TrEMBL record:
<dbReference type="InterPro" id="IPR001874">
    <property type="entry name" value="DHquinase_II"/>
</dbReference>
<dbReference type="InterPro" id="IPR036441">
    <property type="entry name" value="DHquinase_II_sf"/>
</dbReference>
<dbReference type="GO" id="GO:0003855">
    <property type="term" value="F:3-dehydroquinate dehydratase activity"/>
</dbReference>
<protein>
    <recommendedName>
        <fullName>3-dehydroquinate dehydratase</fullName>
        <ecNumber>4.2.1.10</ecNumber>
    </recommendedName>
</protein>
<dbReference type="Pfam" id="PF01220">
    <property type="entry name" value="DHquinase_II"/>
</dbReference>
<dbReference type="GO" id="GO:0009423">
    <property type="term" value="P:chorismate biosynthetic process"/>
</dbReference>
<feature type="active site" description="Proton donor">
    <location>
        <position position="112"/>
    </location>
</feature>
<feature type="binding site">
    <location>
        <position position="123"/>
    </location>
    <ligand>
        <name>substrate</name>
    </ligand>
</feature>
<dbReference type="GO" id="GO:0008652">
    <property type="term" value="P:amino acid biosynthetic process"/>
</dbReference>
<dbReference type="GO" id="GO:0009073">
    <property type="term" value="P:aromatic amino acid family biosynthetic process"/>
</dbReference>
<dbReference type="GO" id="GO:0019631">
    <property type="term" value="P:quinate catabolic process"/>
</dbReference>
<feature type="binding site">
    <location>
        <position position="86"/>
    </location>
    <ligand>
        <name>substrate</name>
    </ligand>
</feature>
<comment type="subunit">
    <text>Homododecamer.</text>
</comment>
<feature type="binding site">
    <location>
        <position position="99"/>
    </location>
    <ligand>
        <name>substrate</name>
    </ligand>
</feature>
<comment type="function">
    <text>Catalyzes a trans-dehydration via an enolate intermediate.</text>
</comment>
<comment type="similarity">
    <text>Belongs to the type-II 3-dehydroquinase family.</text>
</comment>
<keyword id="KW-0456">Lyase</keyword>
Length: 159
């Protein structure tokens, strides 16, 4: 589990949570390179740098526990303009995660490192998509950065 990045204090800084689900902390360690070769800490650094360039205070976190992800979604209510989420394996199974996202009043982007529609059939249905304004999949770490850029536009923040 990672602790949230300390948000900037400027009044005009947008706040966005980037939630990563189970096993995302193992990115870069997969022999098949399904999720690319970048480690999770490197991916986090890329995302934090992108967010900083766009004037976004990013809380980039990861948990292997569904309840922790739900707690963070609830914490983001009223404190964040957007949530970017890679729910990982919970994407295909978690109705409680969907319910939490549906209660979030801001913008939501679903992101996946791999193209979930080119993988096993059980990965072709996402519960998270019902709550998301958009989905980015199959672009690896670049997709994470694109999600931050898209969120910046959705919440009205420009570089």
């Amino acid at each position: 589990m990672n602790t949230p990045t300390a948000p900037a204090t400027a009044a005009n800084t947008a706040k966005v949570w980037f939630l990563n689900g189970p096993n995302a902390n193992l990115y870069g360690l997969d022999a098949n390179k399904t999720y690319g070769s970048e480690s999770f800490p490197v991916l986090r650094q890329r995302c934090e740098a992108k967010a900083a360039r766009l004037g976004i205070a990013l809380n980039f976190v990861q948990s292997n526990h569904e309840g922790q992800l739900i707690d963070w979604i609830q914490e983001a209510r009223g404190a964040s303009q957007g949530i970017i989420i890679n729910a990982a394996g919970l994407t295909y199974t978690s109705i409680p995660l969907l319910d939490a996202l549906l209660s979030f009043p801001g913008r939501i982007i679903e992101v996946h490192m791999s193209n979930i529609w080119k993988r096993e059939p059980f990965r072709h249905h996402s519960y998270i998509s019902k709550a998301a304004d958009g989905v980015i999949a199959g672009l690896g770490g670049d997709g994470y950065e694109l999600a931050i850029e898209a969120m910046s536009r959705l919440i009205g923040k420009t570089a």
